[in-house]
Amino acid sequence: MANDSDLIVNVKLLVESESRLRSIKKELENLDNRKEDMHPYWGSGKIADVMDDFVDNWDDYRKKMIETVETVGKLVKGTVDGFTGLDAELAKELRKAGKKK
């Protein structure tokens, strides 16, 4: 029964997830300059107008995604910091208790 209540945290997976979230955020941020690069390929008239609208909408959603990815990354980092700090503190207390015996 004790094994059912043990908490196992895969810190390596969390650290890797945080790193990937940072990479995703960076890629989303770097997309900002692409509109001007692509504009000449849209042609003119209605197609260019529609593409401009699409890119403007994409920019709004991209900003929201960046904020969300950043928030999740901070939560993951906080989780990693919390568990590694707690683990270090528990190990320290166990060493102290072992020395008192």
Percentage of residues in strands: under 5%
Give the overall pLDDT as a whole number.
86
Low-confidence stretches: none
By secondary-structure content and strand pairing, the structural class works out as mainly alpha
For the largest beta-sheet, the strand count, sense and barrel status come to: none
Order of helices and strands: HHHH
Number of domains: 1
Question: Can you walk me through this structure?
Answer:
The chain contains four helices and no strands. The chain is mainly alpha-helical and 101 residues long. The model has no long low-confidence stretch (mean pLDDT 86).
Quickly list its features.
single chain; rod-shaped; 0% strand; 101 residues; mainly alpha
What is the element layout, followed by pairings?
Layout: H1 2-5, H2 11-30, H3 34-38, H4 46-100
Helix pairs in contact: 2-4
Question: Quick recap of the structure?
Answer:
With 101 residues, the chain is an all-alpha fold. The protein has 4 helices and no strands.
